[in-house]
Amino acid sequence: MKWVFLVALSITLCSAMPRFPRIQYKMPEQLPPNYVQSWFTSFVDHFGSGIETFQMRYFSKNTYWTNNTQAPGPIFFYCGNEGAIEMFIENSGWIDQLASQMGAAVVYAEHRYFGQSMPFGNRSFTSPQNLKYLSPHQALGDYAYLLQNLKIMYYDAPVIAWGGSYGGMLAAWFRMKYPNLVVGAIASSAPIFHFMGSVNPEEFNEIVTNDYAMVDTNCVPYIKTAHDILGVWTRNSTLWWQLQEIFNTCTEVITYSTASNIINWIDNALTYMAMTDYPYETNFLEPMPANPVNVACSKFNNLADDATDAEILAAIRDAVNVYYNSTGNNTCNLVDQQYDNGLGDNGWDYLSCSTLVMPIGSDGVHDMFLPQPFSISAIDSYCLQTWGVAPVTDYAKIFYGSSTNPLGPLRYASNILFPNGSLDPWQSGGVLESIHANSVIGFIMQGAAHHLDLRTPNPSDPEDVVTARNTEKQLIKYWLATAK
Amino acid sequence: MKWVFLVALSITLCSAMPRFPRIQYKMPEQLPPNYVQSWFTSFVDHFGSGIETFQMRYFSKNTYWTNNTQAPGPIFFYCGNEGAIEMFIENSGWIDQLASQMGAAVVYAEHRYFGQSMPFGNRSFTSPQNLKYLSPHQALGDYAYLLQNLKIMYYDAPVIAWGGSYGGMLAAWFRMKYPNLVVGAIASSAPIFHFMGSVNPEEFNEIVTNDYAMVDTNCVPYIKTAHDILGVWTRNSTLWWQLQEIFNTCTEVITYSTASNIINWIDNALTYMAMTDYPYETNFLEPMPANPVNVACSKFNNLADDATDAEILAAIRDAVNVYYNSTGNNTCNLVDQQYDNGLGDNGWDYLSCSTLVMPIGSDGVHDMFLPQPFSISAIDSYCLQTWGVAPVTDYAKIFYGSSTNPLGPLRYASNILFPNGSLDPWQSGGVLESIHANSVIGFIMQGAAHHLDLRTPNPSDPEDVVTARNTEKQLIKYWLATAK
């Protein structure tokens, strides 16, 4: 009976872990040229009062800027999201390129509680009291204050907000809530509707599954079978030594927790590869080949029809190592450490537990994963235990609107572009269609993964991405012309 | 030398006292019929996360409401301002009357930190930590949450936001920031531009002066002369016994602080009478006659051409007692206590020190007061000393826009009506002209004081107020029709 109890408890804990996948960037070794780091004194709390301030970091580049008092070049303002700001500079080369064409200054603002912008230094994550200022609203407050200040130096130049993923949500919300500071926003792959009551939590994993299904017909069945095998093996402690051997884990598989983490480790990789299924080599946590989903699926090609369970597991191990270890440098697999690589993850985990609860689940029928329905009560208990907070599930709905309300706030917004990628699972919460023509525009770029349009143009880019970048350029010109 | 030093110190302290006049209502003995008190559990901090909640109070009245699932009557939602919510129910009879005509439900929400809506009970004002959640942004967060909840009960009925004075600012901002929750706003006498950099701080007192000048040509010169006399007498301690006798003060005039408080006591009354110069009897702190400014000016009528200084001071004492003591019940004058009558004033003082620093000053040339230029450094030191906070003077400008920015956020708003009174000094920060026709409309009601339009219709109302109420009714109908 003791064993059964332990398993039951572990399942609960395991499914309580919120899984909000995001691209895990590696810190770039050096930035593109001429980005200068600066610090700005902002208020810890913008919505009450207080004399507490902190230093937020931003980078700016003025080499392209049209320095003309009467007709200054615009400011391209990137709304930093969940990570050190350098990573977004490194992975948004299109913004830099367009700035050079349009005489724009470029500013990248770092999101509070990420990178080096810590409101309470190295005590920022030590208590709920210190963490309570981590929210999208407060981050937008920082950006508003910073911009108000910068505009003085830039002759009140018009501002275009940019962002990808959560940064795209911030860019869109920035234009919605501060239309006087920002003339328009490019909100790439921004799942602004991915909240309770306005999203189907299982759609995300259906899209991931579909990305693999499109590659070849055997891929999803093998991944599904591998999950079924793991569902059995992880619950049978006499088979754990085999899991340890096949998956070459860095830690011994002697607890249910480690055994089941193998499944999480696999699912993270499968999801991230779908999100970052770019048509050329990229460099995230580790270098990844072009079209990683195709490469991953190819690992099942050599399986015989009568492949053993162990062979199928070995194949999925190789498939996910396209993400974790394409260089072959890792000598073992860190199945226990995927959730724990630095402050960035902590900040995102806190946001996922407070104002940004984005429901994701799987039913095991319409997707290739084991069934793990989204459960708000599991999230609740995890968040209370981990951060001492209760999720505010209707925060985004109330403050920024939802897709289900026909009179939602986007109806009142203008000058926001929402590009989405057809391969990107986050399109499940995106603005896929225009809300009103020429003003709040959403569309899908065929063949594109998560905010591919923001990356440096590449000969392998799908046609739709080339078109999208051109649309961005034309729209920005139009917004700037009509703002005057 | 010691005496000189004391005086100098006192002058500094005295002028450091922020003077942000507001109508001082008396708590009504009973409410209009059928208003039911309820409590709503709201979050202490809407913009981070946390599990702390508090009980906010609201009143609602459903007797007029068209209870029809398909076409429910609208909700008239009053955005409570700085005081116990009963006072605004009592003094906004027009909202009730229009609700009866339009089949509307009426909801009056109490502003946090006022009345009985105390986030930390009777410890709400005891520390900067407990006070930091007192701000317009947080109050609007309460209203958004409350409305989201109420709309379920009211079949998602469309909502009209109402408010007068600071409540009008909240109503306008509510529509600007939450257009999905509110289809339109009546923002009566709302000085949403009365902030640093977008208002002339001395205009307020010029308008007050003008209200008295319009009554008769002698009134302002007498008030001015009385101020000049007081400027001398309060600084000469050998004359304090005479001040005590003439002004019949409840406390002895034995300090410069009490002596100079006589001037503040006078100026408050002169200002409040201008703000509440209604054409019929009203009942604020004490009952006031119709057209109190006229009645006050009449107190100078019997002065001889060679009236003594003491006679002129006695006349201004009688003039301001039109405000403080028209019943004659007070046996002495509480010149030291005007700033200290209950929690409502504390909350307003804190707001004036944090997010709502509304600059007011006098130059003694274009107004009838002693020169007291607006000084942000004086405000700074007062606020730090009193509340431990530093004013955030650009809060409203950044979050809600200002009149000086041609691309201000009102350009992006719609469905807001800004009625202003020609007698009301707060028009100095009001929206006096339409920003765009049929959508964001400002105008002046000739002969009206502070948000007279919201009060119960009265045969003595000026014609412009009757017209304004009709405009409000027609616009609300139009907003409701176009919202569907």
UniProtKB/TrEMBL annotation, chains A, B:
Task: Please provide the record's keywords in A-Z order.
Answer: Glycoprotein, Hydrolase, Protease, Signal
What Gene3D superfamilies is this protein classified in?
alpha/beta hydrolase, Serine carboxypeptidase S28, SKS domain
Task: Give the highest taxon in the source lineage.
Answer: Eukaryota
The record's Pfam families line, in alphabetical order, gives: Peptidase_S28
Q: Which residues cross the membrane?
A: none
- Give the Gene Ontology MF terms in alphabetical order: dipeptidyl-peptidase activity; serine-type exopeptidase activity
Which interval of the chain is the signal sequence? 1-16
From its record, what is one biological process in GO terms? proteolysis
Give a yes or no for keyword 4Fe-4S in this entry: no
Name of the protein in its database record: Lysosomal Pro-X carboxypeptidase
- This protein's species is Blepharisma stoltei
Q: What is the lineage of its organism?
A: Eukaryota, Sar, Alveolata, Ciliophora, Postciliodesmatophora
